[in-house]
Amino acid sequence: MPKNTTCFHCAEPIPESAHFHLSLLGAEQSFCCPGCKAVAQAVVENGLEDYYRYRSEPAEKAQGDEALLEKLRLYDNPVLRDELVVDEGEKSTIQLTVSGIKCAACAWLIEKQCLQVEGVNRIGVDVAANRATVEWNNQRTKLSDILSSIATIGYDASPFQPDSHEQVFKNESKRFLKKLGLSGLLTMQVMMLAFGLYFGVFGDIDTETRSYFHWVSLLLTTPVVFYSGSEFFSRALSALALKEVNMDVPISLAIMIIFGSSCWATIQDSGTVYFESVCMFIFLLLISRFLEHQSRKKAATIAANTNKHIPVTAHLLHEGQEVEALARSLKPGDRVRVKPGETIPVDAKVVSGSSDVDESMLTGEFRHIAKDVGSNVLGGTINQSSVMELRVEKRLQNSVVQEISRLQELALSQKPRIAVLVDNIAKYFVYAVLILAVITYLYWTLVSPEHALLYAVAVLVATCPCALGLATPTALTAAMAKLKEFNIILKSADFLENLPNIDTVIFDKTGTLTEGKFSLTDIQLHDFADNEHDAMRVKAIAASLEAHSEHPIAAAFQNPPNTLLNVEQVKVHTGAGVEGMIKGRHYAIGSPSFIGVKEENGSFNVLLSCDNKHIASFTVKDTIASGTKEFVNSVAHLNPTILSGDAEINVADTAKQLGIQHWRSRCLPKDKLAYIEQLQQQGKRVLMIGDGINDGPVLAQADVSIAVNKATDLAKNAADVIMMRDNISTLNVLFRIAKRTKVTIRSNILWALGYNSCALPLAMTGVLAPWMAVIGMSLSSIIVVFNSTRLLSTEKKPAKISGV
Q1: Kind and range of the H or E element at 337?
Q2: Cα(104)–Cα(775) distance, rounded to whole angstroms?
Q3: Would you say residue 7 lies in a domain?
Q4: What's the CATH number where 596 sits?
Q5: Category of 380 on φ-ψ map: left (φ > 0), alpha (ψ -120 to 50) or beta
Q6: How many CB atoms lie within 10 A of CB 66?
Q7: Cys-Cys with 248: which of 146, 232, 514, 694 at CB 3.0–4.6 Å?
Q8: Residue 460 shares a structural domain with residue 546
Q9: Which of 646, 654, 737 is nearest to 692 (CA)?
Q10: What are phi and psi of 487, to 5 degrees?
Q11: DSSP 8-state secondary structure symbol assigned to residue 89
Q12: Among residues 569, 507, 573, 580, which one has the least CA distance to residue 543?
């Protein structure tokens, strides 16, 4: 039997009474408890034995009792589950907090294990944040199965709570500051001793005193290396365990080489010591890493900060009584009361009372919006003047504010193509640095052996591509943080890279270029073969049919609910019209082509038929949206084009008012899609801006796409960007920031490559000493971060309008 005294899985002492063994990695291994053995057994059975081969740290002690499984099964309870999981049909998504993650091998193991659970489609593990995002088919597996699978290999997973996001950030900042503070304090002491020795501050000191100073420097440097420097060692070991290299590998090598040679010189009492270089190296690197940490986290915390606008409790009306309830527990159909000055807890509809609501947190619109019975209100907005009673329409997790948070987190978790490219360049650059350091050492060993190690270290330090690795992510996160201030939500970081390359802009008309607030201005009746169809009856029929449509034109036909007729066998033809049966007769309303009638007068754009006979024509008009003219003028060089399903006369009128030369009317969704595909086949790069259900396919097909405020859910899902403001001219900010982001990324990359190109020959020839290399490399990273953060001040955030 093996004679291990510590558990092979968790490294805790093995009790004398414990006899748990398993053949693993070609040998018999001992475990402290049945839980750890069960975890190891599961790892082996799932073919994941490489975890133990590549891990850099022991795992958490396993939990193997039935109580844990019972706890996990609680998450399948519909009430609890609905508060934690985002469901979209059969697809479910959740963010988990996973404790026990210590290295990349842990993340690899968790991902491999979860992907073996039937129904799990995708999982991503963030090692730094101890978080995982899991997507699965809720018809094939349960949440508890996923959590149990993770628990089987020794990790504790639980649903992520957004409120803890900022605390995680604070804990990380504290950890950085502790390491930075220690290294800064001790570096000053070591530097003081070094300057005294180098410049004779202490006069002619004897050998014993000089040796004493070296030992004191060694004592002061050791915690700097092994505590403050652990930041680099752990990442380097994780990469090497997975047979990869990252930027921390040459950094760690440089630290250990300089520290090791200095320790040897101190012990032998001969040679040169470089303790001050090691300390300064680590101190400056930590400063640059801390600045990187602050910059990259700024955009990520915005989503968490958004949740601060949601109150914890709400005034729930239960059996006529007002009781306090958690906002997260509210469900559709519940009624809540919101008093003046209070924040609306969830997305809801007004059922009693009227008031003004401040929606600036979500839309950027500082003017208060009047809300009456039937109006929709959003969670996170503020009731200003009167008491309102609301009917809950969505759970908190499905509210607009939560959707913004999820979209922002999704965009931040994705790497754009340029970031992937730069990461690959940086990886190969690291290989090149290691090879060049070896070449430098071998050359100087022949020429000047006493300088060989020092010059090789200078190469490792000076040319480490830290700045190159920071060039893209810092710029993208700063840009996304700035756009969030203007209520522009990016679903993909690739958008900022692709937008400056656009050469054609396509607009939907209704609800995009126009207000989307239609009014019925004229009606003409036809074919009075019977006396059933007078003007009032025709309007009631039209309103009853249009009540089933989500197209903005349908709003022009709104009637009080009690006047609507019962419509059976309803069929909605997206972008064309609606048909159905009313009292045994077939009615259809929509465009002339849908009705099958050639327009007699171009001013009538909506027609109504009864049993395939044209009985009425309507004129429905819209107005140009605020800020549209300004934005269209700014993209006049991008061949602006309108694709609309509206009548020719209306599209032509809108195009004339805006100065747009190219337009098409009566376009069905398939016509819009074919037009964009034709442009792309000609080599055009197309931006599509729309809002309706019929815009979903073209928003998905376009190279880049934007869904304007009040767009349908389908349009938002298909688009790359969602506007939360009504004024489309805000997109000018998006264009400017995208252009500046591209310039910033290019300048960052050029600076990083330029610095390394200059530093490399200087380091290899011995001109650049290690301490100079430390300063140069750190400054290059700090300059890149500073250059990226300048994006945060490129545009002034709109000031609140006074007097409202």
Answers
A1: strand 335-338
A2: 30
A3: yes
A4: 3.40.1110.10
A5: left
A6: 7
A7: 232
A8: no
A9: 646
A10: 60, 40
A11: T
A12: 580
Tens-place pLDDT, residues 26-71: 788 888 876 777 677 767 765 667 667 767 667 766 655 554 555 5
The answer on 617 and 629 residing in a single domain is no
Place of tokens 């006396």: 531
Read off the CATH number of the domain in which 508 is found: 3.40.50.1000
Do both 764 and 649 map to the same domain? no
Q: In this structure, what DSSP letter does residue 88 have?
A: E
Q: Print the domain residue range for 609.
A: 519-621
Helix (H, G, I), strand (E, B) or coil at 388: strand
Both 376 and 497 in one domain: the answer is no
Whole-angstrom distance, CA of residue 73 vs CA of residue 681: 53
Question: 240-250: string of b/e by CB count within 10 Å (b at 16+)?
Answer: bbbeebbbbbb
CB 433 within 8 A of CB 465: yes
- Residue 133's identity, in one-letter code, is T
**Predicted pLDDT of residue 804:** 31
What CATH code is carried by the domain that includes residue 319? Answer: 2.70.150.10
Convert the pLDDT of each residue in 546-588 to its tens digit: 888 877 778 788 777 777 888 899 898 877 789 999 888 899 9
Q: In whole numbers, what is the pLDDT of the chain averaged over residues?
A: 77
Alpha carbon distance 597, 590 (integer Å): 11
Clarify whether residues 715 and 773 are in a common domain: no
Residue given tokens 């799990």 in the structure block = 120
| CATH code at position 92 | 3.30.70.100
- Judgement on whether residues 260 and 379 belong to the same structural domain of the protein: no
Q: Could you tell me how many helices (H) and strands (E) the chain has, helices first?
A: 26, 29
Among 137, 160, 183, the domain-final residue is 160
DSSP 490-517: ES-THHHHHGGG--EEEE--TTTTB---
**Taking the chain, what is the end-to-end CA distance rounded to the nearest angstrom?**
80
673 plus 587 within the same structural domain = no
Per the document, the length of the chain is 804
Contact between 132 and 108 (Cβ < 8 Å):
no
Which residues fall within 8 angstroms of residue 774, CB to CB, at 6 or more apart? 277, 280, 281, 284, 285, 461
151 and 139 both lie in a single domain: yes
